[in-house]
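I hope you will forgive my troubling you with a question about protein structure. The matter concerns a single protein, recorded as an amino acid sequence and a row of backbone structure tokens. Please examine both parts with care and let me know of anything in them that strikes you as inconsistent. Here, with my thanks, is the record as I have it:
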Amino acid sequence: DLQICQHRAPTCCTKKMEESYQAAVRRERTQSIQALNFELKYMIVGHITAFQEAFESLLRFAENRTSSLFETAYRPMAKEAAEPVKELFTDISLYILGAETTVESAVLRFFDSLFPLVYSRLINPGITDLSEDYTECLRLTRQDINPFGHYSKNMVTELSKSLWASRMLSQALSLGIEVINTTEHAALTKECSRALVKMQYCPHCQGLTLIRPCVGYCLNVMRGCLASVSELDAQWRKYISTLEYLTNEMAVSHDLEIALSGIWNSINEAILHAQLNGPQLSATVDKVCGQPKQQEGNLSSASIVPVKAVTEVQTFVMAHASLNNKRREFINYMKRSRTFYASVAERLCDGDLVMRDSSTCWNGEDVV
């Protein structure tokens, strides 16, 4: 009553053994593809971590630089500005990781939070009544009177352009892992599991436990079984080309590094612009939000202090070099995996599965 290992000679197999063999080939096929995938997956996961560490290092550098701007040049509002600064860089980090947010919303939310502080600590430092209603009115007014001029919009444009490539790379790496995981768990067809049993276990039914499949026979069976996986070849090659393009673009332009390291300068320019236009802003705000309580002998507006570049360049250079090296290593490895899905059958038929250095092998029917 054998269904797969039918043979003219007497056999030591039963139908139940054939069913066990089918379970075994399914398990072995999954394990062998997992073993093939392991190195590729390990490299991608490793680079996701490495890229993330390099991104975080650049973000920390940019955040520290921005915080030190407030501490050195705008001390009256440094303490209160700490939270909006932290939120801005958290939002940027989440955006790179693929969160459903935009650079524009993050930057404009930051400037919304910044305006009440600039207005009450620098432009009109005599204000004592900074109630919730008055603060909210200042936040909403920011969108209409544009106190920071073109600097806030410029910051959105520069960051959007540079962070987009980093976000795409982060998503592309996650997609790579998803593809690999999917191929590991692709179901075997009934025909495939029968063909694998015939190739690997039917010789056992004749007591031939040491004989192995012929190379050509193994390749035919594996190619038939892995037809759906090998169909990924064209898309995988395209995927590698896209990764190559993306990493080259990022390496050539250094947009990410330049944009992040320039955030403090954009904020500084925006605040200077608001201070220079202080009287006009005060007149407009008074009309819209009313006049808040002032201390007696109204304090003069805080003096404008232009800020020179903060010297933390060493940290930045190291993070920048680390990111560049990671990109180069990663893309060189991925280029070598370009034919990965075209050669899965060949890799599975390599090594211990087939008989290479012997004059006899199993052809599916007999020993030849």
About this structure: Residues 15-291+322-349 form one domain.
